[in-house]
Amino acid sequence: VDTLADGSRAAARPRASALATLGGSATIAVLGLAWIVNVGALSMTALGSGAYTAGVAAAFVAASLGGALAAMLARTPGVVWGAVPSIAVTYATLCADMVTRAGNGVAVADIWALLSLTVVLSGLLQMLGGALRLGELIKFLPHPVSAGFMTGIGLLIVWSQAGPLLGLEQRISSYDWHGLGAQVKPGNVLIGTVAAAT
């Protein structure tokens, strides 16, 4: 009887481990969902509201393929990969700059192609930096410089979200500061404040 009980316990262990792995993966996926949706929407802000769905879909594809590639190609076990808002702000700024320089007659597909090429070139530069072991130079970077860089990224994120928080239709910098109060939508401010507090 003891042998049978031990055998059934051993058989139950892989099932419990598989369920724990699936549960953990599902939890990470649900928590990452908000990041992916926000990163996708933020990245395509400059292309207008019609590009939001395409941006979110692209973020899902990038997260799925990127996560799979990171898991397959990582040299260290337990690599953590995910969407990063600071990179999305940089991407959105680049997208806005391209739209501004191209003018009104630009096709969305052309902007997508240029942004995709930028991502590929950035990846190649990062691979080159890894092969040359340039990451080891980070130990010579003073902590105040690193903290200032991270604070700057945080301020860029706050600034990029100030317009939507206030309910403005365009970028906040395009409004006259004296008449800005009349353009603010209190409902947006209330919802954004409650969401941030939550």
Topology record:
Elements: H1 2-43, H2 52-73, H3 85-102, H4 108-131, H5 143-166, H6 180-183, H7 186-197
**How would you state the average pLDDT, rounded?**
79
H-E order: HHHHHHH
Low-confidence spans: none
What is the number of helical segments per DSSP (H or I, 4+ residues)? Answer: 7
Radius of gyration: 22 Å
Helix content: over 70%
Count of distinct strands: 0
Report the structural category: mainly alpha
Question: For the terminal residues, how far apart are their CA atoms?
Answer: 53 Å
Note the beta-strand portion. Answer: under 5%
How is the main sheet built?
none
- Anisotropy-based shape: globular
Structure described in brief:
This protein has 198 residues and is mostly helical. Helix content is 74%, strand content 0%.
Question: Mind explaining what this structure looks like?
Answer:
The structure is a single chain. The protein is mainly α and 198 residues long. The protein has seven helices and no strands. It has helices at residues 2-43, 52-73, 85-102, 108-131, 143-166, 180-183, 186-197. The longest helix has 42 residues, at 2-43. The protein is globular, with a radius of gyration of 22 Å. The model has no long low-confidence stretch (mean pLDDT 79).
For this entry, give a set of tags.
globular; mainly alpha; 198 residues
